[in-house]
Amino acid sequence: MRWSRFVHSSAAAFPSAVEVELRGILAHAWEPETAFQLLIDCCVPCDVHPNTAAQRDVFRLASWFSNLSSILRLIEMVIPEPEVVGVPEGQEKHSLSYPVWISARPLDGNSGAASSPPPPPPPCNKHGSIRL
C-alpha cells in the first residue's frame, strides 16, 4: 500500500478568525513562541499584532479557532528555574508558575462576526497548565 497523509487522519476546520490577548506573560518569556505554545491545544496562531513588540502587558495575536468555547480563560505557565551551580544533576528541578489570562474576540471583517456571538464559557473554573 502506498503512503498517504490521509491514512488514520480526520478533517478539521478553523472557521473563526479571532484576536487573542494574553495577559501575565513575563518579560523573560515575551516571545511569539511562548504565545504559540500556550495556545497550541485550541487554535492555530498566525500573526503577532505589531503593538505587541512595544508593550509588555498584553500579548496580542491573530489566530484561527475551531471552537471559540474551547478557549481556556486562565492557564498556568510553568517556567523551569535555571540550574544551580554546585547542585548535582538529577536532583530536584525547580520551577515557577504564573497565571496567564486569555481573552479572544472575532477579528473585524470575519464572516462570523455578523452572526450571534459564541456561547459563553462553561460556569466551571476552567484552567490548564503549560510547561515551557
- Tally of individual domains: 1
Oligomeric status: single chain
Structural class: mainly beta
Shape: extended
Unreliable residue runs: 110-126
Order of helices and strands: EHEEEEE
Bin the helical content.
under 10%
Task: Give the C-alpha Rg.
Answer: 18 Å
Overall average pLDDT? 78
Query: Strand fraction band?
Result: 25-35%
Number of helices: 1
Ends apart, CA distance between termini:
40 Å
Give the biggest beta sheet: 6 strands, mixed
Total strands: the figure is 6
Which strand order do you get reading across the main beta sheet? 2-3-1-5-4-6
InterPro entries: Sex_diff_modulator (IPR053253)
Protein name: DUF4283 domain-containing protein
Region (Disordered): 109-132
Description:
The protein is mainly β and 132 residues long. The chain has one domain (16-131). 6% of the residues lie in helices and 35% in strands. The protein is built from one helix and six strands. It has one helix at 32-39, and strands at residues 16-23, 43-48, 58-65, 74-80, 95-106, 127-131. The chain is extended, with a radius of gyration of 18 Å. Residues 110-126 have low confidence and may be disordered.
